[in-house]
Specification:
seven-stranded mixed sheet, globular, four-stranded antiparallel sheet
Length: 119
């Protein structure tokens, strides 16, 4: 069992930066592909970014490409999402999730952290 806890959210202005963290406990994160997702009010949850177990391969939604960077520190069992040039449309609850390689379902989820970007 893996417990994921996000932190780092907050209220910022457009153009500002934030770094989200996702800390894992229970088991090491190194065996899991990690993803960040977000859900805005009234909208479905959407994929934001993904990182391979070693950190060598990353993938991003088109809407955040070039502005967000996902990274991980397996020694600290922590995954990060660095967000720059934030826009009001980035406002959402951001959640991290874990899945095993060669599977498609994220099986562990954090509770989420709110990011609000004012214009």
């Amino acid at each position: 069992q893996v417990q994921l806890v996000e932190s780092g959210g907050g209220l910022v202005q457009a153009g500002d930066s934030l770094r989200l963290s996702c800390a894992a406990s229970g088991r090491t994160l190194s065996s899991y592909i990690m993803g960040w997702f977000r859900q805005a009010p009234g909208k479905e949850r959407e994929f934001v970014a993904r990182i391979s177990t070693s950190g060598g391969i990353t993938s991003y939604a088109d809407s955040v490409k070039g502005r967000f960077t996902i990274s991980r520190d397996n020694a600290k069992s922590t995954v990060y999402l660095q967000m720059v040039s934030l826009k009001p449309e980035d406002t959402a609850v951001y959640s991290c999730a874990a899945r095993l390689p060669m599977t498609s379902e994220y099986i562990y989820w954090g509770q989420g952290t709110q990011v609000t970007v004012s214009s």
